[in-house]
Amino acid sequence: MTAPPGIWAVLPVKAFAGAKQRLAPLLSPAQRRTLAEIMLGEVLAALAAARGLAGILVVTCDPRAAEMAVRAGARVTEEGAQAGHTGAVAAAMRLLLRERGAAGVLAVPGDIPAVTAAEIEAVLAAHGPAPAFTIAPARDDLGSNAVLCAPPDAVPLRFGDNSFFPHLAAARAAGIAPRVVRGVPGIATDIDSPADLAAFLRLPQAARTRTFAFLAAEGLSG
C-alpha cells in the first residue's frame, strides 16, 4: 500500500540551548545541546529518506536547527515555534492547509534518533482514506510519537506525557476509528529522561546511530 498524496511531515524543534533538562543528572548543558542536535539530524535523515511524503516542515526559532533542516531539504517556519509542541503542530497544520493544500500531516518529535525511513513508511502505509487518524505510541503507551491526520485538522491534537489514549478518544469523538501502529521501536523510543536513554541504548538498531556513538564516547553506553 502506498501513502495518500500530499502528506507532509511536521517536526517541532525547541531551541537547543537548555535542551533536555531531564537528562541533567547524566549530561552537562553542552552535552545535552550536542545530543539534541545529533538526534534532530537523525530524524531529519529518516524523514528525508522515507518514500511517500510530500515534504517536511520544521517549526523552530533556533538558527542551528533551521540550518540543519534546510540542509536536509526541509522547509522552515517560526510560526508557532514558541507555542509548545501542541501549538507548533497546530500552527504547522494551518500553514500547510493554507499554503500547500496538504492532504494530511504526520507529526513526529525530534528526539527519536533510532527512527528509520522504513518505520515512517510503515505509518504511512497503515493510514486509510481520509478522514483518517493513525498513531504510533511511545514505548510506555503514554506519549504520541507519530500522529498522522488526514485531513490535517481531522482530529484536535494535544501532546504531552499522557496523550496516547486521549488522542484515541479524540479520534473516536470525531467519528474516526484510529489505527495504531506498533512494531516501530525507533519511533516508540524518544529520549527525554534517564530511563528513556537506557531504553534507547538497549535497542538493537540504536547501535547503528550517531546518537549511540556520541553517548558511547561520553561513557554512557555501558
TrEMBL record:
The keyword GTP-binding applies. One of its GO terms (molecular function) is phospholactate guanylyltransferase activity. It catalyses: (2R)-3-phosphoglycerate + GTP + H(+) = 3-[(R)-glyceryl]-diphospho-5'-guanosine + diphosphate. Belongs to the CofC family. The keyword Repeat does not apply. The lineage of its organism: Bacteria, Pseudomonadati, Pseudomonadota, Alphaproteobacteria, Acetobacterales. InterPro entries: CofC, Nucleotide-diphossugar_trans. It is an enzyme of class 2 (transferase). Transmembrane segments: none annotated. This is 3-phospho-D-glycerate guanylyltransferase. Guanylyltransferase that catalyzes the activation of (2R)-3-phosphoglycerate (3PG) as 3-[(R)-glyceryl]-diphospho-5'-guanosine, via the condensation of 3PG with GTP. It is involved in the biosynthesis of a derivative of the hydride carrier cofactor coenzyme F420, 3PG-F420. Keywords: GTP-binding, Nucleotide-binding, Nucleotidyltransferase, Transferase. Pathway: Cofactor biosynthesis; coenzyme F420 biosynthesis. The gene is cofC. Its EC number is 2.7.7.106. Pfam families: CofC.
